[in-house]
Amino acid sequence: MTAYILRRLLRSVPVVVLVSILVFSMVEMLPGDPVLHMFAGQYMTAENMATARETLGLDQPAPVRYLQWVTRVFQGDFGTSIVSKRPVADMVLSVLPRTLELAMAAMFVTIVVGIALGVIAAIRQNSWIDTLVMVVASIGVAMPLFWSGLLALLYFSVQLRWFPVSQGASFHSLVLPAVVLGLQSACMVARLTRSSVLQVLREDYITTARAKGVLENRVVAIHALRNAFIPVFTLIGVQTSWLLGGTVITETVFARPGLGTMAVDAIRQMDFPVLQAIVLIAALIYTSVNLVVDIVNALVDPRIAYD
Amino acid sequence: MTEEISQAPPAAPLVPAPERRRTTEFDIVRRNFLRNKGAIIGLVIISFLVFVAVFADVLAPYDPIAQTRAFLSPPNGTHWFGTDVLGRDMLSRVIHGTRISMAVGIGAVLIALVIGMAVGLLGGYFGGRIDAAVVMLIDTFMSFPGLLLAMVIAAMFGTSLPVVMLAVGLGEFTLFARLVRSAVYAERARDYVLASRSIGAGSFFIMARHVVPNIMPSIIVLVTLSIGNAILSAAALGFLGLGAQPPIPEWGNLVNVGRDYIQMAPWLIWFPGIAIMLTVLGANLLGDGLRDALDPKLRR
Amino acid sequence: MVVKKMALGLLAGTFALSLPVMAQEAATPVEGGIVRFAFAEESRGMDPVTAHRRFSEAAIHVHDSLVVQDTSNAPHGALAESWEANADASQYTVKLKTGVIFHDGTPFNAASVKAHFDRLFDPANCCSNGTQYMAGYTGTDIVDDQTVVIKFDKPMGTFAHYIGMLDVTAIPSNAAWDAIGKDMNLRPVGAGPFKFVEWVPQSHVRFERNADYNWGSDLFDHPGAPYIDALEVKFIADQATRTACLEAGDCDIIKDPGFAAQVRLGSNPDYEMVKIPQTGMPYSFVFNTAKWPTDQVAVRKAINLAIDREKINMAAYLGQREPLYSTLAPATPEFWPEAPSLIYFAPDEAKALLAEAGFADTNGDGIVEEGGNPVAIDLFIFGNREGNPSVIVAESIQSDLAAVGIRVNINVRPWDDQSVVAMNEGHHMINFDMPLPTASVLGVMFNSRETPREGRYGMGFTYFQKASPDNSTELDALLDAGDNAATFEERKEKFIAAQKIIGENYLGVPISAGFTTYIMTNRLEGVKYNNAGHAMFNDAFLSAQ
Predict the structure, then answer these.
(1) Which of A142, A249, A286 shows the shortest C-beta gap to B277?
(2) How confident is residue A306, by pLDDT bands cut at 50, 70 and 90?
(3) Is this complex's ipTM strictly greater than 0.90?
(4) Mind listing the pLDDT tens digit for each residue in B13-61?
(5) Chain A contact for C418, CB < 8 A?
(6) Is residue C502 over pLDDT 50?
């Protein structure tokens, strides 16, 4: 098992390196001169621009700058925002908790609602409940997140006043965005949970358990769910990526501070140090969540480790 | 050797075809498909939308960019979906948007398919270091939240429809690459591949020619299912203002513009939103139906 | 419905119907409470030396300037007791108030002023706006502890106007600057009515009442400390959310609500709306006069006559702004009253002008050509933020120009891209919005010195000197003379002559003059505004209701 964990860890190292190169070069390729953006609307001379370029390190060739950037990132220094002139690490840290709390609350909704509905639909296969769950889930998956968010904001916050509109740091203001984001993700998870459970229910040992007279609920609860755990848990790893993307939209719609809104602003303002930091952090979050998922899966089912 | 092979009649049937018509694989697929209510609904929706997209010019009651003085009229007899802030007919805009969204969805998936197939075939066929590199590339791209990647790409190349296709396609090619790669891996050990290798015809392209038809059903399913996602991603880019340029009536963009008038004129966001939802729903249902019909493992 | 329109100075006519505002407030001020004030753009620093001009308005609560100007441009001494220029306006003698103390406890005096102006011109604080508005500054002499002489190497009549500008004459604590340097942007220390407490990025800045404050300007009803305990400035980029914040009771006052919200809340008795007319050059475009086909006056005039500004006003702005037919907004002090006679809506005349100039639709595609080249205009708009109706304006223009045979390609770019686009000279028409309080804004846009070039950012997007060097030289001279004039009369005369050249050559496309708009709960009283349309809370209080 230790060997597997080590191997799995080692496998993510080149990925992280490649991610960092990609992040750096993509942002590098953004059109426009960052120095011009820095001073847009203000007075500047050629000397001023040269100084600014030097301060930003833009006079160095790209590979050198990449190495400098990586070195600094390892020391927790993501540079200074071109626009706000604040340290990027501070900016990111100040909003990271807001994005994580949104993503985690949404994940909670996903797991509770998605798995419950999926299991119910599976054990009541072909009943009206199953049909209803699948119809709702299919529609839910097809709804654009920005649209369902806008409608929820319009009807539940603005008109009915059930939830606050301005996005303070309160729990109350977290509910609506988390539910909107979580429910859509739950619809995806419900469909997959249903088919996983159905597949497991059809396998031999369940049939045996049934034949031995084990109570139906026990069959589902103990045998089927335990074995359906791995695909569903793996799905949570995949879903992390979707949720991180989804926070961008959710935060924008609900005007909530977070990594997503910060990324959208950074793109609009060509604030490349901020953009680099956010994309890198998002990729690292995804990579680590999936690392954990793989390791937990291997612990639950040691066969995985020998594949 | 190679010459002899190329001179051999291609795929000459060894056994003469039986006179009586047998139940073919296609018949089974068709029967399975037609038995699936969801699949039928999906097919109907998609056929309808394709029809709308093709005949948008005829179907749209007005010019989608013609401006009138009827600013923000609610839905009524002359403007079924109401008008927007410049007095343009929303129904006509949504109808023309169908064409844009369909084109972007299909274009993006084709880009994803081409890149994914190339990458997957390379890795699966050559194995070893090349395969390791391919796996690493796939892992890397998968670790970016799709939307964030698409946003950066859209910002990188400027906002236009082809860029949106590329941005969305690059976010989805990993699915195809993984599918193709594992299919090739499985095929590699098969007799005919070994045979074609042993006779010196083991070129990459022969491999591709053998493998691709075999995984065609899976690809068709994945393409259909991905179109829904691609349309959603493209609409999200439009909503963030990183999509098509005005006055193109892209659905996501329509919602974005309508957002400022959400309390005064909610129809500006209701109709384009419903259009997106319907399209994605149709593509997903069709994809699910095709998967259930084509993939024997999932047949029930 | 309570809608106040603030009158601006020397203008007659257009806004003469404005209500007499200030006299209305009779209620007794209530002490205590927090005012929550939301606007769109997060501050980009709050120090007058290094903050970004456009995005630093939160700084006004922490910093007092030498002078503050009211909505009619009348100056009121703030940190300055009095000020006066010498005969050619090249030296300004400023007497300072006594007993002013910065938030860090250090006294405000002549040395603070000198240190500040010198710091503006320190190359290490590259590119502060002060340098732009105080060109020709040679130094500050300390006469005594409360008197300074600010000196220029040429006549600087404009300084009398810029003396009230926050990013020019707001004076930060010198001791604090020496201690924390550019961090002053993040933790400002000034002598204003409020002290800085905290800045939560992407969320808000919090200020608390400066209890020691007793040097308020006579623009305010009382010189003492603010009545409210604290002021929270919230950054809410999304217009709809800003409005919803007000309606949900989470905000007390919001700036720049969406036009839809103005229509809706303007008629709701629970809210009060204040509209301050913009000055300078509000929402407009200028032509690149060095590029075919906008190098031809006929084309530029035709474009101006083809655009239906009333429609734009009704559609994009829901009737909440005013169509603009002159380069300068009518509320600008140096406005030329004849200017609007040059621009009007006459699409048929526009077509005739094009035909006369040799443009004809030879291939029947609806677009006119000259020598086989179709007339296609690249139009650039900026700021694809939510709630910015630029796209709608552009689409409206596109449709109007299509009607006279001109094709328009709309390019939407991020706000900060303006300089990049202009530098590449890829534009025919480029959008900008410079609602500054004086006609000096013309110099920023039309003086050939301001033309962007390698290593030199500028806002002169017309490239007028390339197409018409003679006119351009004359215009430059008038703009400089206006800026350097010692008296207002002379200044106005020069700027009127400049407006004439600009107008008759159709260098720009004015579109719409707006208002700086606030909507607040009717519990909030006593908010005052300066000539830049910034809200000030010295007299503000929340009445009990």
Answers:
(1) A142
(2) low
(3) no
(4) 444 444 555 667 777 777 777 778 888 999 999 999 999 999 989 988 8
(5) yes
(6) yes
Ramachandran bin of B241, using left for φ above 0, alpha for ψ from -120 to 50, beta for the remaining angles: left
What residues of B are in contact with residue C386 (Cβ under 8 Å)?
A: 256, 259-260
CATH (one of 1.10.10.60, 3.90.850.10, 3.40.50.970, 1.10.3720.10) for B49-64+72-298? 1.10.3720.10
Q: Around Cβ A16, how many Cβ atoms within 10 Å? A: 17
B272 versus A270: the higher-pLDDT residue is B272
Q: Domain coordinates of chain C in residue numbers? A: 2-277+515-542, 281-512
Q: Which CATH class is domain C2-277+515-542?
A: alpha beta
Choose between C129 and C424: higher pLDDT. C424
Q: Which residue of A has its CA nearest to B42?
A: A138
Cis peptide, bond prior to residue A302, ω within 30 of zero: no
- Residue-wise pLDDT tens digits, C295-313: 999 999 999 999 999 999 9
Compute the distance between CA of residue C432 and CA of residue C507 in angstroms, rounded to an integer. Answer: 13
Rounded to an integer, the average pLDDT of B72-90 is: 89
What are the backbone dihedrals phi and psi of residue B9, each rounded to the nearest 5 degrees, phi first?
A: -60, 135
Beta strands in C236-343 (DSSP E): 253-255, 271-277, 281-287, 322-323
135-154 of A, contacting B, C-beta below 8 A: 138-139, 141-147, 150-151, 154
Indicate the domain borders of chain A.
32-77, 88-306
Contact between chains at B273 and A138 (C-beta distance less than 8 A)? no
d(CA A249, CA A258): 11
Quote the CA–CA distance of C130 and C152 in Å, as a whole number: 13
Of the spans B152-166, B253-267, C396-410, which averages the highest pLDDT? Answer: C396-410
**Candidates B67, B245, B259; nearest CB to C399:** B67
DSSP string, C182-225: GGGGTS---SSSEEEEEEETTTEEEEEE-TT-----TTSS-SS-
Q: How many angstroms separate the CA atoms of C349 and C368, rounded? A: 15
Residues of chain A contacting C419 with CB distance shorter than 8 Å: 36, 39-40
Give the containing element (helix H, strand E) for C69: strand C67-69
- Map residue C410 onto helix, strand or coil: strand
Q: What is the pTM of this model?
A: 0.82
Q: What is the rounded CA–CA span in Å between residue A150 and residue A129?
A: 29
Residues of C in contact with A95 (CB under 8 A): 201-202
CB contacts of B240 in chain A (<8 Å) are: 248-249, 252, 264
Q: pLDDT (tens digit, 9 = 90+) per residue, C213-272?
A: 999 999 999 999 999 999 999 988 777 778 888 888 889 999 988 888 898 898 899 999
Distance CA B106, CA B33 (A): 22
Residues 214-233 of B with CB under 8 A from A: 228, 232
Name the fold adopted by A88-306: MetI-like fold (1.10.3720)
Helix (H, G, I), strand (E, B) or coil at C402: helix
> Which of B49, B139, B143 is the best residue to mutate to test the A interface, defined by the most A CB atoms within 10 Å of its own CB?
B143
C526: its two tokens: 């006593």
- Calculate mean pLDDT across residues B141-169: 86
How many residues appear in chain B? 300
Please indicate if any CB of chain A lies within 8 Å of the CB of C245: yes
CB pair distance less than 8 Å for C186 and A41: no
CB within 8 Å: A40 and C418: yes
Interface of C with A in 448-467 (CB under 8 A): 454-457, 459
CA distance B195 to C481: 90
Q: Does domain C281-512 have CATH number 3.10.105.10?
A: yes
Distance in angstroms (rounded) separating the CA atoms of residues A187 and B182: 28
